[in-house]
């Protein structure tokens, strides 16, 4: 079956959706765009797309089965509700809303409408994330206890609406929502505390550098960090497990696993070792024969699988991969992030 899609908001991400769907998803055709800006309307026309004169015209267009919302974050809720009420299936860009109550309102409307509502958490298909998920699912490195996930830039820039609080700007809602969604998908346990350190070094209004510590009930802890002012990067991922450590350096997914050898002799002498760190037993280097250096697992990922899942759900052949309930959990953690920053202390929870 062939489905027809429209896009609301034809900026950076709206045009990405159009290009990706048209080039990868045979069963969806993109008909048109609704955007309030003339330049975006002109861009849509130059791509051969129809431009709707009003939201009502789009809502009334019976050809449209599916609409993707790719506007600034403060407008997601009203569009999602109007579209669901008009009987459209809806994909909403991340962050799904500005807060928990807005999302609950959408979920209630989606439930009543019987239509699909999903959130474009496309970074679940990032190669680096899928490598880490595969590694942890395999369980070869023992019990994970500290997961560090970082995205670091240095341009100090929060472009356009991203610099404004009223539009839902700032790093927590921009990149934080991706990294938190990934961490919640890696760890099958409730979040029991959130401790956030948010900085606004260059923006007058919104957080532009953030560090968030999560503690899960199963004793896994995680650090998620986004910077716009990092001039010497840490690795993208550093995962500490009882029997090994895994590192992914950057988006190219260079990295390695260092795993303890199960059969090597692990008894150390009591003698102090003289190292460049000074005399020490604890920090003396481990003999190389006690570890193996392994390649990261090979994985196949494809961002277009997000839309393939949506098609399968429309045809009743699959469940949504990105469910509103999961986005709700992320939004609840995000509310604790802001609460922690406001109080200047860690916040207990059970999310
Ligand atoms: P953008 O500024 O490039 O584009 C936004 C577009 O929306 C513009 O064309 C603007 O004219 C239009 N617009 C603004 N207000 C509108 C309104 N009320 N009604 C209709 N159109 C309106 O922004 P962007 O980078 O494309 O971000 C859009 C959304 O996509 C945001 O929610 C953002 O968080 C998300 N995003 C997601 C990813 C991802 O990887 N999933 C990446 C970038 C952005």
Task: Describe the model.
There is one protein chain. The protein has 9 helices and 17 strands. It is of the alpha/beta class and 351 residues long. It has a 9-stranded mixed beta sheet. Strands 3-2-1-4-5-6 form a 6-stranded parallel beta sheet, sandwiched between helices. The longest helix is centred in the last third of the chain and has 20 residues, at 324-343. It is elongated. The chain starts with a strand and ends with a strand. It binds nicotinamide-adenine-dinucleotide. The site of nicotinamide-adenine-dinucleotide (NAD) has 23 residues, from helix 1.
Note the main attributes of this structure.
351 residues; alpha/beta; 9-stranded mixed beta sheet; 6-stranded parallel beta sheet; elongated
Mean pLDDT across residues: 96
Q: Strand-and-helix sequence, N→C?
A: EHEHEHEHEHEHEHEEEEEEEEEHHE
Shape: elongated
Class of secondary structure makeup: alpha/beta
**What fraction strand?**
25-35%
Biggest sheet: strands, sense, closure? Answer: 9 strands, mixed
Count of alpha and pi helical runs: 9
Helix content: 25-40%
Distance between the termini: 39 Å
| Strand element count | 17
Enumerate the spans where pLDDT stays under 50 for 5 or more consecutive residues.
none
> Which ligands occur here?
nicotinamide-adenine-dinucleotide
Q: How are the SSEs ordered, and which strands pair?
A:
Blueprint (H helix, E strand, L loop, with lengths): L2 E6 L3 H13 L3 E7 L3 H9 L3 E2 L3 H6 L5 E4 L6 H10 L3 E5 L6 H14 L3 E4 L6 H12 L5 E9 L18 H16 L4 E9 L9 E8 L4 E7 L9 E5 L2 E5 L6 E6 L12 E3 L2 E3 L10 E4 L10 H10 L9 H20 L3 E2 L3
Parallel strand pairs: 1-2, 1-4, 2-3, 4-5, 5-6, 7-10
Antiparallel strand pairs: 7-11, 8-9, 8-17, 9-10, 11-12, 12-13, 13-16, 14-15
Helix pairs in contact: 4-5, 5-9, 7-9
The protein binds nicotinamide-adenine-dinucleotide.
The site of nicotinamide-adenine-dinucleotide has 23 residues, from helix 1.
């Amino acid at each position: 079956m062939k489905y027809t899609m429209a896009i609301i908001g034809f900026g950076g991400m709206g045009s990405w959706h159009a290009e990706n769907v048209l080039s990868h998803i045979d069963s969806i055709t993109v008909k048109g765009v609704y955007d309030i800006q003339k330049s975006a309307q002109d861009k849509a026309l130059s791509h051969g797309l129809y431009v709707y004169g009003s939201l009502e015209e789009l809502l009334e267009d019976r050809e449209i089965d599916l609409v993707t919302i790719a506007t600034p974050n403060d407008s997601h809720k009203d569009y999602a509700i109007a579209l669901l009420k008009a009987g459209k299936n809806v994909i909403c860009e991340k962050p799904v809303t500005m807060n928990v109550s807005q999302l609950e309102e959408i979920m209630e409307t989606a439930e009543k409408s019987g239509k699909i509502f999903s959130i474009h958490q496309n970074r679940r298909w990032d190669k680096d994330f899928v490598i880490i998920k595969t590694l942890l699912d395999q369980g070869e490195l023992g019990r994970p206890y500290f997961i560090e996930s970082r995205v670091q830039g240095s341009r100090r820039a929060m472009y356009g609406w991203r610099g404004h609080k009223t539009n839902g700007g700032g790093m927590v809602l921009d990149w934080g929502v991706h990294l938190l969604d990934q961490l919640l998908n890696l760890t099958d346990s409730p979040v029991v505390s959130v401790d956030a350190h948010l900085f606004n070094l260059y923006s007058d209004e919104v957080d532009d550098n953030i560090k968030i510590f999560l503690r899960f009930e199963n004793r896994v802890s995680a650090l998620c960090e986004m910077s716009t002012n990092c001039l010497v990067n840490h690795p993208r991922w550093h995962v500490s497990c009882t029997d090994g450590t895994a590192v992914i350096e950057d988006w190219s997914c260079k990295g390695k696993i260092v795993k303890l050898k199960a059969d090597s002799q692990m008894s150390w002498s009591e003698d102090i070792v003289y190292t460049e760190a000074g005399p020490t037993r604890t920090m003396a280097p481990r003999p190389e024969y006690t570890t193996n250096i392994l390649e990261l697992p090979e994985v196949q990922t494809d961002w277009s699988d997000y839309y393939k899942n949506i098609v399968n759900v429309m045809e009743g052949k699959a469940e949504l991969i990105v469910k509103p309930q999961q986005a709700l959990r992320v939004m609840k953690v995000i509310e604790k992030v802001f609460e922690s920053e406001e109080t200047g202390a860690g916040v207990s929870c059970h999310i």
